[in-house]
Write a structure and sequence with these properties.
Length: 469
């Protein structure tokens, strides 16, 4: 049962609930410049878990981490016309530094295709240098008119991968691998968020791309959130930056390139996909703190038991925090529920007299008494059960809130409280414009079996339609 007055109920005002939760769960705060954010330690600990999981998967796909400058000469962006046109409303431009006007304005990176392109062109000489697979973890700046913490901020954190390949086929295969083996695997198996996998329409593609793949998640209010994207850039950037290689035929060829990224927006997705009226709900595989051992009384025996339990859990790979704080027990419980820690172990003198502790699941609120000798086994089993349950609930909710429709009017109506699915040939570019006029968009195109198409030229594609953040 939700605790009255702590958070605005989701059903009453979902945006206000989201804002309340950011503050009361100590995730983030507004920065001193409009559109910026301060990520607080608890929120940043979750981001570090996101980084670690995604970074491991990226490295398994062969990419290596590098770092490129925050400042990009304006002339770099101008060399790729579609790219600069797509980003120009969002650019932050430096014109003065060191007390003087700069000879050439400098753009604060909105994304790094251009600067990567400049240096990858220098480093690639032969087909033996390919594929070149790079990734960086960085901050980027896109000047948002309507900022919202984690979802749309003028500065945010992300990873961006950039690769160069011999052929279009190789580039396509690698971008798909990243999309499926990195992003989709992470979203399902760690974040417990099922998504619709698909490609963007030509109107929604990344600026300068020939194809954009996306993972579209459904939030608890029925809106879509773009969780991660992978872009095939063809030879657009290669030609703009003279990124060529000498082939085994002794002729020069332009590379085919890709880029792909996921950002701190994932934290917003976590909040809105799993959070409830009591606060955040963090899947165990993502949680920086999986278990809190809550000492009900500042008692030597209780503190000793909590420390022993923490030591017993650590060899099982379980992260534990012991809460020894004084103060209202109800307030302390509320604070941990707001933070969404998966399992709470309540330890008090009476529990110890009975040789047990109370185990509380954050997702269901279920309480069970567990013998002291069986705590580790019970916790490990419960964490697995919570992870599976959260994915199952999110998938059931997504499926229940997605309906098949036959007309644009029905799609617009369905998108007021969920997703609509409609054959692309009944929508088309003109229908997409009609949807956009009602603040509804085609989130992606899928094959009829739900799989990821290679291009929007394929027959029998299905449009996933929704309102979006």
């Amino acid at each position: 049962m939700a605790k009255e007055g702590v958070l605005t109920p989701q059903a009453e005002d979902f945006p206000r609930w989201y804002q309340d939760l950011l503050t009361k769960a100590e995730l983030a705060d507004n920065g001193p410049v409009r559109g910026t954010m301060v990520i607080r330690p608890y929120g940043y600990a979750i981001w570090e878990r996101v980084q670690r999981e995604i970074d491991n998967r990226i490295k398994e796909c062969g990419a290596k981490n590098a770092y490129f400058p925050l400042f990009i000469p304006e002339s770099y962006l101008a060399r790729e016309a579609q790219h600069v046109e797509g980003f120009s409303p969002e650019l932050a431009v430096v014109t003065h530094a060191g007390g003087e006007e700069l000879a050439e304005p400098i753009v604060v990176r909105p994304t790094s295709e251009t600067v990567f392109g400049e240096y990858m062109a220098k480093w690639i000489q032969s087909y033996r240098d390919l594929p070149l697979l790079l990734n960086q973890w960085a901050n980027v700046v896109r000047w948002e008119l309507r900022p919202r913490l984690f979802l749309r901020t003028s500065e945010f954190l992300w990873q961006e991968g950039h690769t160069a390949h011999i052929s279009q086929e190789d580039a396509n295969a690698y971008a798909r691998r990243i999309h499926l083996d990195v992003y989709n695997d992470f979203l399902i198996n760690v974040m417990a968020i099922p998504t619709y996998l698909g490609i963007k329409t030509s109107a929604e593609r990344f600026a300068g791309a020939v194809n954009t793949m996306t993972c579209e998640g459904m939030m608890r209010d029925g809106k879509a959130l773009q969780m991660a994207t992978s872009h095939e850039l063809g030879q657009n950037f290669a030609k703009a930056f003279e990124m060529k290689y000498l082939g085994d035929d002794s002729k020069e060829h332009y590379c085919f390139t890709t880029s792909w990224g996921a950002s701190t927006r994932l934290i917003g997705g976590l909040i809105m996909a799993h959070g409830d009226d009591n606060g955040l709900v963090v899947p165990p595989r993502l949680a920086a703190t999986q278990v809190v051992a809550l000492c009900i009384k500042d008692d030597e025996a209780v503190l000793s038991a909590a420390a022993t339990i923490a030591d017993e859990l650590k060899p099982h790979g379980v992260s534990v925090e012991v809460d020894r704080k004084s103060g209202s027990l109800g307030r302390r419980i509320t604070d941990w529920e707001l933070k969404g820690v998966p399992v709470r172990l309540e330890i008090g003198p009476r529990d110890l007299e009975q040789g047990s502790v109370t185990l509380v699941r954050r997702d269901t609120g279920e309480k069970v008494s567990v013998a002291l000798g069986g705590v580790a086994e019970a916790v490990v089993r419960t964490l697995d059960e919570i992870q599976e349950a959260l994915l199952g609930e999110a998938l059931a909710r997504r499926n229940a809130m997605t309906v098949d429709v036959e007309s644009l009017d029905d799609a617009i109506a369905a998108a007021q409280h969920g997703f609509a699915r409609m054959t692309w040939d009944k929508v088309g570019p003109s229908g997409e414009a009609t949807l956009n006029a009602s603040a509804v968009s085609v989130r992606c195109l899928q094959r009829s079996d739900g799989s990821l198409p290679n291009s929007d030229d394929e027959d029998d594609l299905v449009a996933i339609i929704a309102k979006a953040y």
